[in-house]
Amino acid sequence: AQTVTQSQPEMSVQEAETVTLSCTYDTSESNYYLFWYKQPPSRQMILVIRQEAYKQQNATENRFSVNFQKAAKSFSLKISDSQLGDTAMYFCAFMSGGTASKLTFGTGTRLQVTL
Amino acid sequence: DTGVSQDPRHKITKRGQNVTFRCDPISEHNRLYWYRQTLGQGPEFLTYFQNEAQLEKSRLLSDRFSAERPKGSFSTLEIQRTEQGDSAMYLCASSLVGLAVYNEQFFGPGTRLTVL
Fold this sequence. Notes:
The complex is a heterodimer.
Chain A: E1 3-5, E2 10-14, E3 19-21, E4 24-26, E5 32-39, E6 46-52, E7 60-61, E8 64-69, E9 74-79, E10 88-96, E11 104-105, E12 109-114
Parallel strand pairs in A: 2-12
Antiparallel strand pairs in A: 1-4, 3-9, 5-6, 5-10, 7-8, 8-9, 10-11, 10-12
Chain B: E1 5-7, E2 10-13, E3 19-24, E4 31-37, E5 44-50, E6 53-57, E7 65-68, E8 75-79, E9 88-95, E10 106-107, E11 111-115
Parallel strand pairs in B: 2-11
Antiparallel strand pairs in B: 1-3, 3-8, 4-5, 4-9, 5-6, 7-8, 9-10, 9-11
């Protein structure tokens, strides 16, 4: 069974600064996907960024980028130029590439962006 | 169609009562997932459907829980004889699975259940 660990329950960053959220995972599979989801207060979860395990290049989506270290089973999210709207819970998630079905989530990191 | 919808958004019930939640996926999506999220935790997978077939159930889904997706459209999740431990946010997600292996799951706003 796969596990996803987020060791930072809460983080805070000032507006316009950069913050990195950590995630580690454990799996015996070689083909899988990793995700970061954002869940704003009282709003639905949305996908921030996705990484395919077979790709060596780190994924980037505008201000969001990941540092994917496959051997270390590490998948961190970097948010550059943080904005107040980035305040949310951030969940790291794993999906097996074989069945492409369920997501396994970490416990989340609550990010607060301050002025 | 603006996304996945869930009804009701909030449900308060007394222990021992039955409750039913509904999820309407994005119209062309053939996969539908149910997750449960307790306070301070990430969502946990419960079950998923491809069209009307229920393909996987988590061991979290006790025999008090049942899910259906008649005709491969909307889905219902019923909890019988609710317990206080069932209090959680129940999330629904849908995706379109086709030739590509990966298809993004789109989440609904959730149904927050409180069992008194």
